[in-house]
Amino acid sequence: MVSVEGLKVEFNAKALFDEVSYVINKKDRIGLTGKNGAGKSTMLKILAGIQTPTAGTISIPKDVTIGYLPQVMILSDNYTVMEEAEQAFGHIKELQEDIQRMNQELADRTDYESESYHKLIDRFTHENERFLMMGGTNYQAEIERTLAGLGFSREDLSRPTSEFSGGWRMRIELAKLLLRKPDVLLLDEPTNHLDIESIQWLENFLATRCNAVVLVSHDRAFLDGVTTRTIEINCGKIYDYKVPYSRYVELRVERREQQMRAYENQQKQIQDTEDFIERFRYKATKAVQVQSRIKQLDKIVRLEIDDEDNSSLRLKFPPAARSGNYPIIAEDLKKAYGNHVVYHDVNLTINRGEKVAFVGKNGEGKSTLVKCIMGEIDYEGKLTIGHNVQIGYFAQNQAQMLDESLTVFDTIDYVATGDIRTKIRDILGAFMFGGEASDKKVKVLSGGERTRLAMIKLLLEPVNLLILDEPTNHLDLRTKDVLKDAIRDFDGTVIIVSHDREFLDGLVTKVYEFGGGVVKEHLGGIYDFLQKKKMDSLNDLQRKPELSASPTAQNNESETVSENKLSYEAQKELNKKLRKLEKQVSDCEKKIENLEEKISAVELKMATPEGASDMDLYAEHQKLKQDMDRVVEEWESASIELEEAKGE
């Protein structure tokens, strides 16, 4: 469907890609992976036609549509959420207005026997059928379903987009893109602005309802849930595997091991040959054999090992003084903005050394509670920060707040004090800002590079309470793994606000769920929490508890870790089964809708004088009815199986 041939991209005479070729087929689910700066976003821009390569060709058939969601975009604020989303169906609205005009003209005209009147009838019939086939009568419902899946409530639909944060407006753009149903969907970090519920909805949508998808994401669980093919960009080349990310990692290791063995065997053969030539080069009796070996050596095709970028982030938090036993104690905490209650009656205690996660839909108060702990906003109730607590805070917008006029080195030099100033180059090198990279201006850094730079600033001061608000946004998979290891080894207390299931897995031992104005404690890790909530599609979080519910009873409810919890692999298998069943149900519903339209059309013909005596119409009607009974039976069976799998 899309063909890339001999692609080359150069920046300042340095090749980002060189001789890259591959094909995107129908229904491909491709995950683009590679370290920050490898060229993933550049590749998407080239596929979207936004950037021109130095050399090579991108072949896209004229009838193939491309949809592109960048990491950052300029958004307008002239409409409500629903009006903005409806722009995805602008072509349908134009067709609807055209049909209405034709309908009015048919009603006004009286020249029923004229040729032009009959042509108008034919055109009206054709356009009306096309309108129905395009889903013109139900696109409003489709918009509402998509926006609800991405976290919008029904009340949000009539609100102006200007009332929403940049992250929520990005969701609107994502909804518009999904509703347009392009042949090739290009997504650059689509989960950065989504919460866990919306991520799992999007994961299911992309896996079951989209055409071809090319995806850049640093969320390993999301990649595994969506993709069936992985293309790694590494050192200017690509490595194409027809498997999801986790399996690709295994195959990549196996491939390098095989290459290494073959390379070592060939090197031994070359060395033996060269030794023979050198030993007998000047012996006349061995002249024939020496010449034969020289020719043999010339014919050898030298094997190469895939280049591997071994630069890594060695992250270690400096030791800090011991804090009190209870760094954070909240008692009857409440935060409201006017009549809007963000949360109320929050009672929680975080012990020294605990690593906890704050999860829930965006806007439910996770970051608000963090700001209360930091003393940035006021609140009602009592919030106690323990003895000798030293807080290190990483906010979502910290990377964007860096001074763009400074260089990387100056950014750290301005905040470093004491002996640490003599080690700035070493610290920057550890964060992959070695050599000339330390002299780059902040304004030219990628999102991931800015995040790493902001993380360095956090590490300059010893702390015993880390509060990390979406720390993994824009971090590549390798850097995320190293950060996760460093947090796991950190002997202080950690609060993580994150939607990244894979990052939280094995890291946190307690989950605080924010929703409906209350904060509920769950013991165990993130997958214990998901399993307990039966949240393979996270429907439980959509059913928010009412504010009138007893928060004390909810907070004091005994939560135990499920003994029969699913392992991560079992969870993936269950999710795969659910997606398959959901697709089966969706396909059946589409078939039923199509059959209903066909049956209605046949019945309209049968109601005419000519059709009443047409036996072929009766036979067609009977067959359609039989098909309908069969599909309805299939739909009922799949729906029951889906409900059982979900535990509903």
Task: Note down, in words, how this protein is organized.
There is one protein chain. This protein is an alpha/beta fold and 648 residues long. Among the domains are: 328-568, P-loop containing nucleotide triphosphate hydrolases (Rossmann fold, 3-Layer(aba) Sandwich); 569-646, Helix Hairpins. The chain has 21 helices and 18 strands. The chain has helices at residues 40-47, 81-86, 90-108, 115-133, 139-149, 166-180, 196-209, 220-226, 245-280, 287-299, 366-374, 408-413, 424-430, 447-459, 477-489, 501-504, 526-532, 551-555, 568-606, 609-612, 615-646, and strands at residues 2-11, 14-24, 29-33, 55-59, 66-69, 184-188, 212-216, 229-234, 237-241, 328-337, 340-350, 355-360, 380-385, 391-394, 465-469, 493-497, 510-515, 518-523. The strands form four sheets. A six-stranded mixed β-sheet has the order 5-6-7-3-8-9, with helices on both faces. A six-stranded mixed β-sheet has the order 14-15-16-12-17-18, with helices on both faces. α7 (196-209) packs parallel to α8, α7 (196-209) packs across α19 (568-606) and α9 runs antiparallel to α10. It is globular. It starts with a strand and ends with a helix. The model is unreliable at 535-566 (pLDDT under 50). Residues 549-565 have a biased composition (Polar residues). One of its GO terms (molecular function) is ATP binding. Residues 85-112 form a coiled coil. Belongs to the ABC transporter superfamily. ABCF family. YbiT subfamily. Residues 2-260, 328-541 form the ABC transporter domain.
